[in-house]
Structure formats: structure tokens, C-alpha cells
Design a protein that fits this description.
two-stranded antiparallel ribbon; 5-stranded parallel sheet; 50% helix; 22 helices; alpha/beta; 503 residues
Length: 503
């Protein structure tokens, strides 16, 4: 029709994109990208060191690929106490699936992460988006489901799971001869917090949670059980969490006519001692080369002593190594000797050795109580700031002010008593194994962060942290004193932060 045509123009051109393209963009806007196993936010997330946790990784991957003929259940609960390595194992298994081309969708909850990783809001949409990326026919089916129910994202998780995941999978299964198998990996579900109802008006009352976090966690468990019970659902599901009551109750086989999930306890079913031994040997060899230490720097019984102290908790060994690697004021040998001199108090607390290590490191600060006060306030401020600006409108100028308050340099200005001092380095300089402290040249663009939630668990329990305990009210009092001082000096940051807590 256009043969030899020239010197013409088109007044308007309309290109009709396939519905799935537009729908996927809409879905993309409603996911929690930070919750993906390979997100930028998780760039420093724990992973299994080479040659460690091999048995449990192999067992999980074999189950993902082949299932269990003796016990054909599509859901597995991986549990263990804080610091037993659940997140590292889940991250490594997910990465292995991706490398081998095995379809995997993941969601890594974190109570210390961005808002999308803290609540259930984007859970189903994030899973659905990842599934849509694996097959065009599934993407088209999800797009059709969204078009048929435009308000699906305002409905509960059960309806979202049925509409965005289960029904599209049934459509694909009925129209395709190609088998579709995969795995969904959920980590840290015990860290999922309660979803808040947000108001768009400034005169509305402050956001108030209407449920408990246990209820939201249970809702997710029920939705995953709903999926695994569907005979056409082609995915296996792995849920990793601490053995909190809601999980023990939900997975209790006596509550069901049949077993709904296999249980894998990292602390009881796998001997972590050999893996921790290997981990310490590799890291200590690295330290020796880095600091040009003689082979004799490490006492012959040091590794066995630390392995015994760890009691299967990788977090203990990892914290010891960070303490030696990031120590700024003493050489690794002196720091290690101090740890080896620590003696157990002999209590029945299973976290006793980790508590002793945390106490030892915190007490290495020139002012331990003030350092703890800083840590409690930093955690509180980051939580409040993230909840506020992540849940509000980005074009709101108030939100832009709040975003500027989350960097380390601003928090330092808020908390230090002398603006000309370097109080942050003075108090936190020895605590880099517990707190991610930004380098001075990155303070203006980087936030404080924490390596593990178990530090906050420790500091919030007076029976565990003893004389280091700082009540929440006292930490807030310290914060208000600093706010008052900044406001009195007409420092704009203080006024903005004060506005944050009054709005």
C-alpha cells in the first residue's frame, strides 16, 4: 500500500500495547521490590559462606526439585532461634534456584527494612509480579484478571491470591502442555508487622493499627496454605521464621486432620558446629593475611572455644568476626583475647553467650549507656521516618523534608550535645560489629543500619541486657531534650523533626 510513497506525514499515531504490558506496569507499582532476594536493600544480607550449610542447602534444593514421595506435602516450615542462619540459608537457596534457571519467587520480610518489607500490604502482588515474569501466558492471564477486577488491590489477601495467582495458574495449566514447576520462598515472616490504616487528611487522627501483627502473620500463613492445598498449584512453598507461638500453633499437626507442612529445625536437625568451625577458620586466615600476623597469632583452642560458645548460632560467630575485622582502636589479637577471657554466667538462657558477647562489645564504648541510648533512638527515628515518608505522597513537601532527616549526618546533628564534636565516632567507633556506621564522607547520603534484629531484642529485655537497659521512655526523653535544645537554637532540623512527632 505504501510502495514508492514519499513526502507524507502522520498527524497522530496510536500504538496499542498488549494488555499484559500495561497491566504489569500497574502491578509493578504495587509491589515491594526491596523484598526480593536480590534487591539493592539486601546487598549486605547474610549468605552462606562457600562450603558451609551444604547439607541443609542440598536437602532443601532436592525437595524443591523432586519433592518427597513418602511425604508429598508442598509446604515446608524452616525454623530455628534467632541467629541460627535461616535468612542466610534462604538467600543462598533462592540464589541457587535462580542460577539453575528454576522458577522462584521470593519475599524477604524485615522489621528493620523499608516499609514494603515490614507489612503484608504488597505480599501477594510481589509474588504475582515475579510469577508473571516467568511466562508470557501467565502474564497475560494475570493481566486479564486485573482487568476483570480493577479494585482487586483493595481486597484482602485471600481474594488477591485467588485472583492474581491461583486462577491465572489454573488457566495456564488448562491451556498449555508445558509443565510449570517452581518454588516460593518466604523469609522472616515473624518480622511482618501490623498493617496500619493511613489517612489522607491532616485533620484525621494519627494512624492506628486495627489488628495485631500475629493476625497479619496468620493471614499470610492461611493464604499460603490456601495455595498449597490447590491441586493445580505447581509451586512448593518454603516459609522461614522463628518458632513464635503463631507459627507453632498453625503448623501443629494435632490441629489438622493431616500434616500441612514439613518442619525443618536448623538448630535441632543439622549440626552447625562443623560449618561454624570452617567459617571461623576461613575468616581468621583472612584476618591473619590482612594484618600480616604470624601463624601463631591464634591460640590453638580459640576456634573450639568459640564454636562451643556459639551453640549452633551463626550470629555469634559472625558478630565475633565483625568485631575483629572492624575494630578501629585495638589490633585483632587483643580483641580476640578479650573475647576468649569472657566466662559464662551459667544461666539457663539459651541466648546467654550471645548476650554476653553483645554486653562485652557495648561495654567497649567509652560511654556504654549513652551509646545504647543513641542506638535506641536511632532505631526509633528510622522506624518512624520510614513509616511516615514511605506511606505518604512523594509530592508532599513535608515528605521531602522528612526524607532528608534519615541520613546519618542529620541524626548525628540531632543527637550530639556539641555540634562541633565528633560524638558519633566517640560513642559508636567500637560498635561497628553491631551497627553499620557510614563512613564520614558518606554520612550525608547514607543511613545508619543494624546487622541483626537480635540486638534490639537484647536491648529491649532488661533480664538479658541488665545494666545496659534503657527504657523506651528514657530514650524518648533523651530525644525530646535534644529536640528542645535544637528548637531553642532555632535549628531548622529540630523544628522539622518536632513537626514529625506532632502531626
Amino acid at each position: 500500500m505504501f510502495e514508492r510513497a514519499h513526502d507524507f506525514h502522520v498527524n497522530s499515531l496510536v500504538v496499542n500495547e498488549p494488555p499484559s504490558v500495561n497491566a504489569l506496569e500497574e502491578l509493578k507499582a504495587l509491589i515491594a521490590p526491596e523484598a526480593l532476594h536480590d534487591s539493592a536493600e539486601r546487598c549486605d544480607a547474610p549468605k552462606c559462606d562457600p562450603l558451609t550449610r551444604v547439607a541443609v542447602q542440598d536437602d532443601l534444593y532436592s525437595w524443591i526439585e523432586h519433592g518427597d514421595a513418602v511425604n508429598p506435602i508442598n509446604m515446608k516450615w524452616v525454623t530455628g532461634p534467632a541467629g541460627s542462619g535461616k535468612t542466610a540459608v534462604m538467600g543462598s537457596v533462592t540464589e541457587r534456584c535462580k542460577i539453575n534457571g528454576f522458577p522462584v519467587a521470593s519475599f524477604f520480610f524485615s522489621s528493620l527494612g523499608s516499609i514494603g518489607r515490614r507489612t503484608k500490604t504488597a505480599f501477594v502482588t510481589t509474588i504475582a509480579y515475579q510469577l508473571a515474569e516467568h511466562r508470557q501466558d501467565l502474564k497475560d492471564s494475570i493481566a486479564a484478571a486485573m482487568e476483570a477486577d480493577p479494585i482487586i488491590f483493595k481486597k484482602n489477601l485471600r481474594v488477591q491470591m485467588e485472583t492474581l495467582v491461583l486462577t491465572p495458574l489454573r488457566v495456564v495449566a488448562g491451556s498449555s502442555d508445558t509443565a510449570f514447576r517452581g518454588v516460593i520462598v518466604i523469609d522472616g515472616l515473624d518480622e511482618c508487622g501490623v498493617e496500619e490504616i493511613h489517612h489522607n487528611t491532616t485533620t484525621a487522627p494519627r494512624n492506628q493499627p486495627t489488628r495485631t501483627k500475629e493476625q497479619d502473620q496468620l493471614e499470610i500463613l492461611q493464604v499460603l496454605h490456601q495455595a498449597s492445598s490447590d491441586p493445580t498449584f505447581p509451586f512448593r512453598i518454603i516459609i522461614a521464621s522463628r518458632p513464635e507461638r503463631v507459627f507453632r500453633h498453625f503448623f501443629d499437626p494435632e490441629r489438622h486432620n493431616n500434616l500441612i507442612a514439613q518442619k525443618l529445625d536448623l538448630h535441632q536437625e543439622y549440626d552447625a558446629e562443623a560449618d561454624i568451625t570452617l567459617f571461623l577458620k576461613v575468616r581468621f586466615d583472612h584476618l591473619r593475611r590482612l594484618h600480616n600476623l604470624p601463624p601463631s597469632w591464634l591460640p590453638p583452642t580459640a576456634i573450639k572455644f568459640l564454636v562451643d560458645k556459639a551453640s549452633g548460632q551463626f550470629i555469634y560467630a559472625a558478630t565475633v568476626v565483625r568485631f575483629l575485622e572492624l575494630g578501629h582502636r585495638e589490633p585483632p589479637k587483643a580483641l580476640l583475647e578479650a573475647i576468649l577471657k569472657m566466662r559464662s554466667t551459667g544461666t539457663s538462657n539459651p541466648l546467654n553467650t550471645l548476650d554476653e558477647l553483645y554486653s562485652h562489645i557495648l561495654n567497649s564504648s567509652p560511654d556504654p549507656l549513652l551509646s545504647v541510648q543513641w542506638i535506641r533512638v536511632i532505631e526509633f527515628l528510622l522506624r518512624q521516618l520510614v513509616l511516615t515518608f514511605d506511606s505518604d505522597d512523594d509530592i508532599n513537601p513535608r515528605v521531602q523534608y522528612l526524607k532528608e532527616l534519615s541520613d546519618a549526618s542529620t541524626i548525628n546533628l540531632l543527637l550530639q550535645t556539641d555540634p562541633a564534636s565528633n560524638e558519633a565516632e566517640h560513642l559508636l567507633g567500637n560498635l561497628h560489629s553491631l551497627v553499620r556506621v557510614p563512613a564520614p564522607h558518606h554520612e550525608a547520603t547514607t543511613q545508619y543500619d543494624f546487622y541483626h534484629k537480635s540486638l534490639h531484642d537484647f536491648l529491649e529485655d532488661p533480664d538479658r541486657c541488665g545494666k545496659l537497659h534503657v527504657r523506651h521512655e528514657k530514650a524518648l526523653g533523651f530525644l525530646w531534650d535534644r529536640l528542645h535544645g535544637l528548637c531553642a537554637s532555632e535549628f531548622d532540623v529540630g523544628m522539622v523533626i518536632l513537626f514529625l512527632f506532632l502531626m
